[in-house]
Design brief:
With 70 residues, the chain is mostly helical. Helix content is 71%, strand content 0%. It is built from three helices and no strands. The mean pLDDT is 92.
């Protein structure tokens, strides 16, 4: 179990979202944490891929490599 303290304004925004979704605080906060963790994982994977690639390509070169331009 996890307990967190929120500023009054943030708590009010959360309650508005909960009401609009017909959900509850735990579900909304859980979803937000999962998305945050997934975004961070994606960012780390992107950084790793960029480091392994060694360089970036201009858009025109990328389009040609993907067969999007003749």
């Amino acid at each position: 179990m996890l307990a967190i303290r929120l500023e009054k304004e943030l708590e009010q925004e959360l309650d508005l979202l909960v009401k609009a979704r017909g959900s509850n605080r735990s579900s909304v906060v859980r979803e937000a944490i999962v998305r945050y963790l997934e975004d961070n994982e994606d960012l780390e994977l992107a950084k790793q891929a960029f480091a392994e690639a060694g360089r970036s390509k201009p858009l025109s070169e990328l389009r040609k490599d993907l067969g999007l331009d003749d």
